[in-house]
Design goal:
7 strands; seven-stranded parallel beta sheet; alpha/beta; single chain; globular
Length: about 325
């Protein structure tokens, strides 16, 4: 009588048990907090100031905020007029957590900047006057090869000026939100220069090419928070209080925009209030406040930096 394969013999069961006992036991994958040496449920926060080097006002406020320690990260716009001042600060503060805010647009009407690379080598990125486009919505296809040429030029200029960046991120998220080809240029340069790239899981649903492009060596933050134009000035502090009280476990980056509401910045941003002078002063005021410090303590939120994430990436 032939025994069914669905009814194994006693000997087969013994052999199967022995085989299974010799297999390695699968352990749950560590989350990013655990990989950094924190408990699984730790709430970790990077308070990151965008747009360093855009104006002197942005620089002055960011330098002060970095020195007080509660804004603990920033990224530099290499093409902008005040880059030399930001580079000098970076050289004088080698432990500061400073990345590169890779920039391919010049969004203000009267205050403009253009590419670091020769303009004729990045033709799809510039307008008739040689500035970066205000935006990419009304222009022909942006060429990925031009993107790579310009991003490489920005990174090399920063290195030549003594900046030792801890990470790369994208001005106005242009390199994140405009398709797989452009995102993979950013990712490729991050790998080449051994720098982590700011990517958050929050973006995966809207941009499925992001997780498809990332590999096991890439750092992915859990969440990101930034204030938007729908929040009225009188509710500014409420937005950040609620965000801190409801912070999820894992690594979150607050992307903030700080500066002093002074004559220089009012002139540079006068055509519209969004991300303008008063906006940036409100961000500076909240994150310089004793209330922010107390909320971190009360909520048991720990600040971390991109430098820690870069060290983790190096170990992979």
């Amino acid at each position: 009588m032939k025994r069914s394969l669905l009814c194994p013999t006693y000997q087969q069961l013994v052999l199967l048990a022995i085989y299974l006992s010799l297999q390695p036991v699968a352990t749950p994958a560590q989350n990013l907090a655990e990989k950094l040496g924190y408990p699984k449920d730790a709430r970790l926060l990077i308070v990151h100031a965008d747009d360093l080097a855009e104006t002197h006002s942005v620089n002055a406020a960011t330098f002060k905020s970095l020195e007080n320690g509660y804004v603990n990260s920033a990224s530099i716009m290499v093409p902008c007029p005040w880059f030399a001042e930001a580079a000098d600060f970076a050289k004088a503060h080698p432990d500061a957590d400073l990345g590169l805010h890779l920039t391919l647009t010049s969004e203000r009407v009267f205050y403009r900047w253009g590419p670091v690379a020769p303009r004729d080598t990045v033709a799809s990125l510039v307008d008739a006057n040689g500035y970066f486009h205000h935006d990419w919505d009304q222009h022909p296809r942006i060429e990925p090869k031009d993107v790579e040429t310009e991003l490489r030029a920005q990174i090399e200029r920063a290195l030549e000026m003594g900046v030792r960046p801890t990470h790369l991120d994208s001005h106005q998220y242009r390199l994140i939100e405009n398709g797989k080809e452009i995102f993979e240029v950013l990712l490729r340069l991050g790998h080449e220069y051994h720098l982590p790239v700011f990517v958050a899981r929050d973006w995966f649903v809207d941009h499925p090419y992001l997780p498809a492009s990332l590999g096991p060596q890439d750092i992915v933050l859990d969440h990101t928070v930034t204030i938007g134009p729908a929040v009225p000035p009188e509710k500014w502090a409420d937005f950040y209080r609620d965000a801190l009280k409801n912070l999820q476990p894992g690594v979150t980056e607050f992307v903030i925009h700080i500066a002093f509401d002074d004559e220089e910045l009012r002139a540079a941003t006068r055509e519209r209030p969004t991300w303008g002078s008063a906006w940036r002063q409100r961000d500076f005021d909240f994150f310089s406040s004793s209330e922010f410090r107390k909320l971190l303590e009360q909520q048991r939120i720990q600040l971390i930096t991109w430098r820690q994430l870069a060290q983790l990436a190096e170990r992979r």
